[in-house]
Description:
This is Adenylate cyclase. One of its GO terms (molecular function) is adenylate cyclase activity. It is a multi-pass membrane protein. The protein is of the alpha+beta class and about 575 residues long. It has helices at about 10-15, 20-45, 50-65, 65-90, 100-130, 135-140, 145-170, 170-175, 180-205, 215-250, 275-280, 315-325, 380-385, 390-410, 430-455, 500-515, 520-530, and strands spanning about 255-260, 265-270, 300-305, 330, 340-345, 365-375, 415-420, 420-425, 465-480, 490-495, 520, 535-540, 550-555. The strands form two sheets. Strands 6, 7, 8, 9, 10, 11, 12 and 13 form an eight-stranded mixed sheet that branches. Strand 7 and strand 8 (about 420-425) form a beta hairpin. The chain is globular and about 100 Å long. It starts with 8 loop residues before the first helix and ends in a 14-residue tail after the last strand. FE2/S2 (inorganic) cluster binds near residues 293 and 298.
Amino acid sequence: xxxxxxxxxxxxxxxxxxxxxxxxxxxxxxxxxxxxxxxxxxxxxxxxxxxxxxxxxxxxxxxxxxxxxxxxxxxxxxxxxxxxxxxxxxxxxxxxxxxxxxxxxxxxxxxxxxxxxxxxxxxxxxxxxxxxxxxxxxxxxxxxxxxxxxxxxxxxxxxxxxxxxxxxxxxxxxxxxxxxxxxxxxxxxxxxxxxxxxxxxxxxxxxxxxxxxxxxxxxxxxxxxxxxxxxxxxxxxxxxxxxxxxxxxxxxxxxxxxxxxxxxxxxxxxxxxxxxxxxxxxxxxxxxxxxxxxxxxxxxxxxxxxxxxxxxxxxxxxxxxxxxxxxxxxxxxxxxxxxxxxxxxxxxxxxxxxxxxxxxxxxxxxxxxxxxxxxxxxxxxxxxxxxxxxxxxxxxxxxxxxxxxxxxxxxxxxxxxxxxxxxxxxxxxxxxxxxxxxxxxxxxxxxxxxxxxxxxxxxxxxxxxxxxxxxxxxxxxxxxxxxxxxxxxxxxxxxxxxxxxxxxxxxxxxxxxxxxxxxxxxxxxxxxxxxxxxxxxxxxxxxxxxxxxxxxxxxxxxxxxxxxxxxxx
Length: 569
Ligand code: FES
């Protein structure tokens, strides 16, 4: 049977990749989001009691005020802000989508609000030893900074939610539960603000307060806030100046032409991505993730002018490799043409990540954790020697047809037939654990079906049919591959791509080498709860394309699998 693909040592090495700018922005953003989220939830406890607020704040501060916690927070803030300013200066910002523009604009406004807040709490604690717990904050921030606080919460939260939405937008589980996340996105800031206000009013109605800052300390605090704000405004002005220079350079610089097959020819200054050129010229172009190299929906086939494109960056390469894209397919959001090119867009411009709208979500590919199975009929060439073509086709159809039925009966999806083998995917609509259990159940049932088939064909065959099965669980890209001229066109077929598929295929090949019917990766075994059993032997095997041996379960016959791991409910 043909292998589903192979990874060279270089490709394997590339899997341990350097973090990209997008990775850094995401990682630093997630740290800051975790801080903001726990901060708001802590505020919300003001609806319960001030003592509860204080107790949780104390616990949070063990982490956030520790040396590692402080360093991580400061580093994340600096990296995130620096990347935001750098992004602002990039020329393609001028044609970014409105969501990106709002996210970036809000992000750049956050420091203006945040400087005063941070210096008024953590700052005075560090400089003057002021205990900046909630009792202090409730007095100094309410009601004088009520609007500032509401604006700060709004800016931080909207900025974070847009970023998270773009990050998670391609994941099926997120889209399935979108309403829940939308509800939480509204509820958390409202509860946070309400908790703070409620606690502040209660505290001020029942307690007394003496500001711990002396007049001179307060003056130093105000000076520091003013200086910090000016420094930040200067940074913003410098970024705006660079942005303006790009703008002027674009106007004065030479222009290039991008010709769309069956579409217009677009003219634009150098320095824009293909996606930005589409937007400048109001040419519809799919971009579900907003140009973050996460969705691949913007991809184009370059028909002419490949030499006018720079080689793909690590980030673009990673996405293209996952798609198994040929060399002339590029991500429009990541490639900046240096000269004239002719392209063809590969996906409809209006696609949305929403199955509720009746659009095929596999059209542009989704990533899911699945279990992939390969099943191959053994020694078929030998069995067919001297037989009529009709007999060969009959036996093959009997085998593949019965196996496909069994796969579908146990919840799998028959991806494709390849000669005398079949590839199946489990887990397109169920959890990874259920997918692994379904695949085990399928293998067990297939072994039984094979016995029945051998009984019915015993007169027609010189020897019983035998099969080998390999299965592995992990992330795979599910998408429609083929001609995509029309959304939902019938010339494209749903398939799975990626390393999970390759390894499952190789494990099927291993079953022959090991003299067993089934080889299961540890990932699948762990998900299904399979341990050593009579007929299931864990062992280390070398697999082509991997630099280290991996542990697998070699199962003499699939019917040896314990019933418990092959149950689907
Ligand atoms: S727009 Fe998502 S990868 Fe280009």
